[in-house]
Write a structure and sequence with these properties.
Layout: H1 2-7, H2 9-27, H3 30-39, H4 102-108, E1 117-118, E2 128-135, H5 139-155, E3 159-166, H6 175-189, E4 194-198, E5 202-204, E6 219-220, E7 224-225, E8 241-244, H7 246-251, H8 265-275, E9 289-292
Parallel strand pairs: 2-3, 2-4, 7-9
Antiparallel strand pairs: 1-3, 4-8, 5-9, 6-8
Main location: Golgi
Cofactor: Mn(2+)
Enzyme class: transferase
Length: 307
């Protein structure tokens, strides 16, 4: 009976079509999504109903860092900071009102140097991270991000710098092109270990979401945004906040410059990652929580019709 079925043209066409569909699904990353469904570790559990103040534990930054006896010394003759910072608190509160002034941000972060630079005192940081923020006409969002992100990163005991790449004028916004400019400018300043690509309207909710890179491949860290009900909108999504090393950036030939307006460039970047033979990693869903600042659509940042 099976032989007779296979001899029918319609049955053969159905089987061939099914095989092609499965092959296409797997080539687009469906295998990773199936693995995530059946075998992915869910990660630690956090109580987001009782978050800590985002400025918690900063008073400990001025004291002696907690390092293990006999820790190896870094290039500056200091012991390396702990692999997991003892200052982490987990979920942190995110507030959109009132919008802090720049003077208040400076006052609350006295250890941050001019130019948005910070390095921990008393221990050698294990990662030097450049945070690159494409920006245009979002001053309120930028102030909220800076107020929130500086203490968030200081508790992780990173050496970091925040680069705000501003697009002047009223022309159509080009996120990916600004990111290319940001990478170039950041690497002219310093040999950063890690490049974090950060939308200005996304605030992280858990400081266990470490702003460090994975040497095995690019990371997508904004995996659970309130905009999408704290879930991943689709398996290949690479938008919001992501990270890669300078070598990974060069291997994928940077980012596309032709995406003017909203949308499309993050999917293109994810495709470049795959074509370069690299795989995207992500933190557990319970860790990669982000809140998006509410806003209306921007003039000059309309949806890209070719996305």
């Amino acid at each position: 009976m099976l032989r007779r079925l296979l001899e029918r043209p319609c049955t053969l066409a159905l089987l061939v079509g099914s095989q092609l569909a499965v092959m296409m699904y797997l080539s687009l990353g469906g295998f990773r999504s199936l693995s995530a469904l059946f075998g992915r570790e869910q990660g630690p559990t956090f109580d987001y109903s009782h978050p800590h103040d985002v400025y918690s534990n900063l008073s400990h930054l001025s004291g002696a860092p907690a390092v293990a006896p006999g820790s190896p010394l870094g290039p500056q003759g200091l012991p390396y900071c702990p692999e997991r910072s003892p200052l982490l608190v987990g979920p942190v509160s995110v507030s959109f009102s009132p919008v802090p002034s720049l003077a208040e941000i400076v006052e609350r972060n006295p250890r941050v140097e001019a130019g948005g630079r910070y390095r921990p005192a008393g221990c050698e940081p294990r990662s030097r991270t450049a945070v690159i923020v494409p920006h245009r006409a979002r001053e309120h969002h930028l102030r909220l991000l800076l107020y929130h992100l500086h203490p968030f990163l200081q508790r992780q005991q990173l050496a970091y710098g925040i680069y705000v790449i501003h697009q002047a004028g009223n022309g159509t916004f080009n996120r990916a092109k600004l990111l290319n400019v940001g990478v170039r400018e950041a690497l002219r300043d310093e040999e950063w270990d890690c490049l974090f690509l950060h939308d200005v309207d996304l605030l992280p909710e858990n400081d266990h979401n470490l702003y460090v890179c994975d040497p095995r491949g690019p990371r997508h860290v904004a995996v659970a945004m309130n905009k999408f009900g704290y879930s991943l909108p689709y398996p290949q999504y690479f938008g919001g906040v992501s990270a890669l090393t300078p070598d990974q950036y060069l291997k994928m030939n940077g980012f596309p410059n032709e995406y003017w307006g909203w949308g499309g460039e993050d999917d293109d970047i994810a495709t470049r990652v795959r074509l370069a033979g690299m795989k995207i990693s992500r933190p557990p869903m319970s860790v990669g929580h982000y809140k998006m600042v509410k806003h209306r659509g921007d003039k000059g940042n309309e949806e890209n019709p070719h996305r």
